[in-house]
Write a structure and sequence with these properties.
Blueprint lengths: L9 H12 L7 E5 L5 H14 L3 E5 L6 H10 L7 E7 L4 H7 L5 E6 L9 H8 L8 E2 L5 H13 L1
Parallel strand pairs: 1-2, 1-3, 3-4, 4-5
Length: 158
């Protein structure tokens, strides 16, 4: 019953039902990638998390074209319930490092190959692994997003 108008209106009842249906369990892992073309490889991490029943979210954001979006996503990840970020990127592979610069959450970098990669993806591997002191990024093998999913699970379970 609404104090001002008497019995609850039909609209208020509908809203209450819709609110009750909203899932409040936040994603525990954020999977980000620099381009939509990375989706097929990065789905490897998502599939590992799905099989384990771990909620996750997948976003496309470029460290070079949308640096403010990446920074905002990473700064707010913990508040939204995310506990690990998996970041996939190719070529200069800046996304994992930029993510790590804007959060204290564990960041797992997935170096991705592409037709433009130098020496079969070595450029991406080095970009993920060669981080400056104080900006740690864990790294998995080239195009090995499944291992990133498995590592995220181990971090969550530790």
């Amino acid at each position: 019953m609404n104090e001002q108008t008497g019995p609850a209106s039909e609209t208020e009842t509908e809203v209450a039902v819709q609110l009750a249906e909203i899932e409040v369990d936040p994603p525990r892992v954020g999977i980000i990638m620099g381009s939509k073309s990375d989706m097929d490889v990065m789905d490897g991490a998502a599939s590992v998390l799905r099989e384990a029943g771990v909620r996750h979210e997948v976003r496309v954001m470029s460290a070079h074209r949308e640096p403010e979006l990446v920074a905002e996503y990473c700064r707010n990840a913990r508040i939204r319930g995310v506990r690990v970020i998996v970041a996939g990127a190719g070529l200069s592979a800046a996304l994992p490092g930029v993510a790590a610069a804007h959060t204290d959450l564990p960041v797992i970098g997935v170096p991705l190959s592409s037709r433009l990669s130098a020496m079969g993806g070595l450029d991406a591997i080095l970009s993920v692994l060669q981080m400056p002191p104080g900006v740690p990024v864990a790294g998995v093998g080239l195009d090995n997003a499944k291992n990133a999913g498995h590592l995220a699970l181990r971090i969550l379970r530790s």
